[in-house]
């Protein structure tokens, strides 16, 4: 099993380019199932990750072949396949496997999708997905761990979903992948669908932009009320995947934790307001590398090349994870690693996945002073972290432990980095280019 061996204490210096967002690319790839006609679906800036490879395998199982070039471009011809089974062996490896449910149901009239897998960060039910699709007329049953969904009969023959008013709010807010599924299903439904409490995440907006490029009629993208006017058919599209805001935040936090100076290209400024606000509280100021704009002027930029101006002393802060535009849960572990070195007491409250604190005992092994308080963690800053063997429990916890290892004195062994490979392409190579002493080893 692979691990990262990190000798910390080296400030990161240099430049890094943010790749396409995993959390955007996976639903975009699933939406390729919706295409008809003769125009291919082309996706650019697709990262080379284990989750992406799993989705490619799943789509091939469903009769959709996507070819990939060395530059991160995927392309596929429209498929006439009638396959509807998304098998357990593939879907169990990634949460986003559920994203094929809506497109399959809308395009082929039926879907048989295994219940999804992914990281162990607490319960993530799919009941909102199913409730939304049922509102569109789907008949849904559960059979031996599979979701079996069937669209209602259409007047002219075949099966077709029907537009409806759909509410997607849940106990922890809106559902991101549920919104992706319902929106992807609604684009081919008969009539108009209104999605209330839709996820506002930039990745959902990116999916909507691709669907519009395919011929869908969608209003309200980026807002909690999305209106979809169903069309009879969608065509192919050429679409560039948005930059990964979680990868961007991870590298910025790593630069801050090590006292480094890293220029970050394709930094998605507009999508990262809450994270940047937290960093300003900590004392990290963002500036544009070319042009000298102040950080407040960068808030309206789609992307920019930026660097973090790192203070000698980090201040504490309090954050609460929330649906977008709130602080992203996927950057909670990375910020916590940084706050372990702040001068004072910080409070981190997790409201999306309350069990997402499995990295806390691992940080404690490195000398961090962190105390769990129900859905919150009190972080008392220490003078330094000490390298130690630690175990990664999920994708983003892995990134937090890597950041801690980069900043720590001595050597840190981060085990189970297969979690990291799901969301960060060649992270050790990219960190080496920034001056980090990090190696991938077999343990």
Automatic annotation (TrEMBL):
Residue numbers bearing the 2-(S-cysteinyl)pyruvic acid O-phosphothioketal modification: 119
Binding site for phosphoenolpyruvate: 22-23
GO molecular function (one): UDP-N-acetylglucosamine 1-carboxyvinyltransferase activity
Keyword Cell cycle attributed: yes
EC number: 2.5.1.7
Annotated binding of UDP-N-acetyl-alpha-D-glucosamine, by residue: 95, 124-128, 330, 352
Any GO BP: regulation of cell shape
InterPro entries documented for this protein: Enolpyruvate_Tfrase_dom (IPR001986), Enolpyruvate_Tfrase_sf (IPR036968), MurA_subfamily (IPR050068), RNA3'P_cycl/enolpyr_Trfase_a/b (IPR013792), UDP_GlcNAc_COvinyl_MurA (IPR005750)
Domain named Enolpyruvate transferase: residues: 7-430
Main location: cytoplasm
Domain of life, source organism: Bacteria
Protein's pathway: Cell wall biogenesis; peptidoglycan biosynthesis
Catalytic activity: phosphoenolpyruvate + UDP-N-acetyl-alpha-D-glucosamine = UDP-N-acetyl-3-O-(1-carboxyvinyl)-alpha-D-glucosamine + phosphate
Protein task: Cell wall formation. Adds enolpyruvyl to UDP-N-acetylglucosamine.
The family this protein is said to belong to: Belongs to the EPSP synthase family. MurA subfamily.
Protein name: UDP-N-acetylglucosamine 1-carboxyvinyltransferase
Species in which this protein is naturally found: Phycisphaera mikurensis (strain NBRC 102666 / KCTC 22515 / FYK2301M01)
Upper lineage: Bacteria, Pseudomonadati, Planctomycetota, Phycisphaerae, Phycisphaerales
């Amino acid at each position: 099993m692979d691990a990262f061996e990190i000798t910390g204490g080296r400030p990161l210096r240099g430049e890094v380019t943010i790749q396409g967002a995993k959390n955007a690319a996976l639903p975009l790839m699933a939406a390729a199932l919706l295409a008809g006609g003769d125009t291919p679906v082309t996706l650019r800036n697709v990262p080379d990750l284990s989750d992406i490879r799993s989705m490619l395998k799943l789509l091939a199982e469903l009769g959709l072949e996507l070819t990939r070039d060395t530059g991160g471009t995927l392309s596929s011809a429209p498929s006439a396949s009638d396959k509807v089974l998304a098998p357990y062996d593939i879907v169990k490896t990634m949460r986003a496997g559920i994203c094929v449910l809506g497109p399959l149901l809308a395009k082929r009239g039926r879907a048989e999708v295994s219940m999804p897998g992914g990281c162990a960060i607490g319960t993530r039910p799919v009941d909102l997905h199913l409730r939304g699709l049922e509102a569109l007329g789907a008949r849904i049953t559960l059979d031996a761990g599979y979701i079996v969904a069937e669209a209602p009969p259409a007047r002219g023959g075949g099966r077709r979903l029907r537009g409806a008013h759909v509410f997607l709010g849940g106990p922890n807010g809106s559902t991101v992948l549920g919104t992706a599924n319902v929106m992807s299903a609604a684009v081919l439904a008969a009539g108009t669908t209104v999605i209330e409490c839709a996820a506002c995440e930039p990745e959902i907006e990116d999916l909507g932009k691709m669907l519009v490029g395919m011929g869908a009629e969608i209003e309200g993208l980026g807002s909690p009320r999305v209106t979809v006017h169903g069309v009879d058919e969608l065509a192919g599209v050429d679409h560039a995947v948005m930059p990964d805001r979680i990868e961007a935040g991870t590298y910025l936090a790593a630069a801050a934790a090590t006292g480094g100076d890293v220029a970050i290209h394709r930094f998605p400024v507009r999508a990262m307001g809450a994270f940047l606000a937290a960093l300003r509280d900590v004392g990290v100021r963002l500036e544009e590398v070319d042009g000298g704009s102040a950080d407040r002027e960068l808030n309206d930029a789609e992307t920019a090349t930026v660097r973090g101006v790192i203070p000698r002393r980090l201040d504490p802060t309090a954050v609460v994870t929330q649906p977008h535009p709130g602080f992203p849960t996927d950057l909670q572990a990375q910020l916590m690693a940084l706050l372990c070195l702040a001068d004072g007491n910080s409070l981190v409250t997790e409201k999306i996945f309350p069990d997402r604190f499995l990295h806390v005992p691992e940080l404690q092994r490195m000398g961090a002073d962190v105390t769990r308080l129900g859905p919150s963690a009190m972080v008392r800053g220490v003078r330094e972290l000490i390298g130690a063997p630690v175990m990664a429990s999920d994708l983003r916890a892995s990134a937090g432990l890597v950041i801690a290892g980069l900043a720590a004195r001595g050597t840190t062994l981060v085990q189970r980095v297969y979690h990291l490979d799901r969301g960060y392409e060649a992270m050790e190579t990219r960190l080496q280019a920034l001056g980090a002493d990090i190696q991938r080893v077999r343990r």
